[in-house]
């Protein structure tokens, strides 16, 4: 699931300059470890002693993080036992439309992925999935964009087609990043994987900005003294989206994304993102230890994961006991928890002794963003029809301050059925939809869009019932993705570093936390993959295994690149 934060806008000179540097990746800034190099090294991720082969490890949650964890542990010769309350995929959820062609799908969760997600891309390539440009506002492959603010609409193909005030907002954001966050220096250091420089810049900013909101960061900048500019930036941005729903969050969350260009050059997965965990579930790796050729996660589970976990507790002999919804009770030396952390507070009966008290505090303080979407299938990409009076596209990707906020047009080719995401919203904007049914939501959205496009009858093109989601109302999620509030850095550090269990009391080891909400970049599938690789190293270490000296893992490098530690007193 993508976040709502903006990317930096570069002028032509800056773009030419950055093109001469290495491509950017989600390399830090909190933990500048090269996960893509770790994955692609011929030595593999490590090995465990033969005496431990076949040992069971519980993996709770069948989202991307859980499936990557289980897949890599299986390759090492362990036996992952996956528990999943709902369906494999988590927030990589692709659904169809009843009565429509099966190829017509909607992405209810993650739908756009940046090239800087290099560890994620490793698995996309591994299972043979293709990607295509995602039609973000003003993206090169987006035919056109309409920005509608305070009842006034502007049609554009590039940001230069918008009124001058939008370019002023873009310039203000660039200046704000340079002035308050050393954007160019950090972006260059991340591209060059200059760990000392990354750590130097970030240590200073974490100490300075941990208590600052996104909005406060804007207000403190001499570039954003204009309330009008801040309002436009929040409502529709400078042409790539509105971000006022993120204004109360920590500015550190925003900087992590803009430094790594995570909100830029997005691509979608052809056929739907849920294919990634599903294909990994079925995949029979060629390089596998202990297990016979042809073994897959699916075959180890007789085709289906175990059901929802209802209780977790510690037992004698350094074991963790897992009880599932069928009443089955099993004990394990290692358990990996990849579901949203609030599940540990509400849906699962947990012993207090599972985690240190300061980790429980961090779990409780985790702040989740709400998010909702609604999609409809249509007969064809009618929005590409030319308006006879203006010569413009009949309809465009739309950013507005109306209830819909963001409307995306998803084209499957000329004269083929297509999909419209009528609305994609977050936080308070998402909560406005919560009491309404899918059809009620659609009616409000169609009315709102008819005010922007009075000559367009969207309804006559709809060929099936709408599908919708409000992630805050999903019982096994209770929110879309984590977004730290000011002062939450210390909490996130505790959760992210939990995989380094030698630092914990002996009686509190053996359960590992993973998932994008444990990562520094929640809302991005890359964070799910990175934390999965952390716990793969942690479990391997617990079973007496080790990495190849030529390919040190995240735990091997930890002391050199550990996240900044702020004082507690």
Category from helices, strands and their pairing: alpha/beta
Proportion of residues in extended strands: 15-25%
Which shape, going by the Cα principal axes?
globular
In helices, the fraction of residues equals: 25-40%
List the strand order in the largest sheet: 7-6-16-17-18-15-19
Report the oligomer.
Answer: single chain
For the residues shown, what is the average pLDDT? 94
Radius of gyration: 24 Å
Q: Span from first to last CA? A: 36 Å
Give the total of beta strands: 21
Low-pLDDT runs of 5+ residues are 1-5, 8-17
Q: How would a textbook summarize the main sheet?
A: 7 strands, mixed
Specify the number of helices. Answer: 19
In short:
With 569 residues, the chain is an alpha/beta fold. It is 31% helix and 16% strand.
Plain-language structure description:
It is a single chain. With about 575 residues, this protein is of the alpha/beta class. The chain has helices at about 10-20, 35-40, 65-75, 120-125, 165-180, 185-190, 195-210, 215-220, 225-235, 250-260, 275-280, 295-300, 345, 355-365, 425-430, 440-450, 490-495, 525-540, 560; strands spanning about 55-60, 80-85, 95, 105, 130-135, 145-150, 150-155, 265-270, 310-315, 320-325, 330, 335, 350, 370, 370-380, 395-400, 405-410, 420-425, 465-470, 480, 510-515. The strands form 6 sheets. Strands 7-6-16-17-18-15-19 form a 7-stranded mixed β-sheet. Strands 2-1-12-21 form a 4-stranded parallel β-sheet, covered by helices on one side. It has a 4-stranded mixed β-sheet with strand order 11-10-9-13. The longest helix has 18 residues, at about 165-180. The protein is globular and about 75 Å long.
């Amino acid at each position: 699931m993508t976040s709502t934060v903006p990317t930096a806008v570069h002028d032509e000179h800056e773009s030419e300059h950055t093109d001469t540097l290495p491509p950017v990746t989600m390399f830090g800034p909190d933990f500048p470890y090269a996960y893509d190099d770790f994955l692609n090294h011929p030595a593999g991720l490590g090995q465990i002693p033969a005496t431990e082969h076949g040992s069971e490890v519980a993996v709770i949650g069948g989202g991307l993080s859980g499936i990557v964890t289980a897949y890599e542990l299986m390759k090492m010769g362990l036996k992952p036992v996956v528990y999943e309350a709902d369906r494999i995929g988590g927030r990589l959820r692709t659904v169809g439309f009843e009565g429509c062609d099966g190829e017509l799908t909607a992405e209810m969760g993650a739908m756009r992925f940046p090239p800087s997600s290099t560890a994620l891309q490793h698995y996309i390539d591994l299972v043979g999935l293709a990607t295509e440009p995602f039609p973000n506002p003003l993206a090169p492959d987006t035919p056109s964009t309409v920005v509608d603010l305070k009842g006034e609409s502007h049609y554009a193909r590039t940001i230069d087609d918008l009124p001058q005030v939008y370019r002023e907002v873009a310039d203000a954001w660039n200046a704000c990043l340079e002035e308050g966050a050393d954007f160019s220096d950090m972006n260059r250091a991340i591209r060059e994987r200059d760990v000392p420089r990354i750590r130097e810049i970030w240590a200073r900013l974490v100490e300075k900005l941990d208590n600052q909101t996104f909005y406060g960061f804007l207000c403190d900048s001499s570039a954003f003294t204009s309330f009008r500019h801040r309002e436009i930036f929040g409502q529709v941005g400078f042409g790539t989206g509105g971000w006022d729903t993120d204004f109360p969050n920590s500015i550190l969350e925003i900087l992590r994304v803009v430094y790594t260009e995570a909100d830029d050059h997005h691509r979608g997965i052809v056929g739907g993102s849920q294919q990634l965990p599903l294909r990994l579930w079925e995949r029979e790796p060629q390089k596998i230890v202990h297990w016979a050729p042809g073994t897959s996660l699916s075959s180890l589970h007789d085709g289906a994961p175990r059901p929802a976990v209802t209780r977790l507790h510690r037992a004698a002999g350094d074991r963790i006991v897992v009880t599932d919804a069928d009443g089955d009770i099993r004990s394990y030396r290692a358990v990996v928890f990849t579901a949203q952390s609030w599940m540990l507070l509400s849906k699962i009966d947990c012993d207090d002794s599972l985690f240190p008290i300061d980790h429980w505090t961090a779990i409780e303080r985790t702040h989740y963003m709400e998010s909702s979407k609604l999609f409809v299938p249509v007969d064809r990409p009618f929005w590409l029809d030319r308006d006879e009076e203006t010569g413009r596209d009949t309809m465009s990707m739309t950013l507005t301050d109306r209830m819909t906020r963001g409307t995306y047009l998803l084209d499957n080719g000329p004269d083929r059925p297509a999909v419209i995401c009528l609305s994609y919203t977050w936080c308070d904007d998402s909560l406005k939809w919560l009491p309404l049914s899918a059809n009620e939501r659609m009616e409000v959205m169609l009315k709102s869009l008819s005010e922007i496009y009075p000559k367009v009858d969207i309804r006559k093109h709809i060929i099936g019932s709408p599908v919708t989601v409000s992630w805050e109302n999903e019982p096994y999620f209770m929110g879309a993705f984590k977004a730290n509030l000011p002062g939450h850095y210390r909490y996130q550090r505790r959760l992210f570093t939990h995989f380094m269990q030698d630092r914990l009391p002996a009686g509190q080891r053996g359960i590992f936390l993973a998932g994008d909400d444990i990562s520094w970049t929640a809302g991005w599938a890359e964070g799910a993959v990175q934390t999965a690789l952390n716990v793969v190293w942690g479990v391997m270490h617990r079973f007496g295994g080790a990495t190849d000296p030529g390919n040190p893992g995240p735990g091997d490098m930890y002391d050199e690149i550990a996240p900044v530690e702020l004082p507690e007193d």
